[in-house]
Design a protein that fits this description.
By secondary structure, the protein is α/β, with parallel strands linked by helices. Helices cover about 30% and strands about 15% of the residues. The protein is elongated. InterPro entries: Thiolase-like, Thiolase_C, Thiolase_CS, Thiolase_N.
Length: about 150
Amino acid sequence: MNIHVHKQLSKLPSIFIKNAGIVTAGNASGICDGATAIIISNEGALKKYNLKPLARLVGYHKQLSDIDLFDINEAFAPQFLVCQKVLILPNEKRNLNGGAIALGHPCAASGARITANRVYELRCRQGKYAIGVACIRGWSRHCFVIGTNLNI
């Protein structure tokens, strides 16, 4: 990182804990405009309208070693770093296209953005499973597993 940029970032005030916190405007995602849509269907509608799904919601019954890609929507950089450290996520499997800090954090659209990114990244890499994690109401998390192997 450029030393000048590092010095400027270190001067930013903390957001949550005045004069003592580590979350600043420099390491937090920006709130931005965005819109997304995802169609979720059952088998009957797929057959009725002759649709071919891109992926399937799989559920929670997978081991971390089964997962090809992770997308942890980081509203704040420290929160992502804790997740990476606790889960020991390999660099080549997580937030490959950037997260909310790089791409923005469109309120009420981040979950669909994460889902679409994971589906297309899985298809490009010929992977089977991805986990997407999104913030809800600050610190609580919502996690989902998607799979491109449609014979699951």
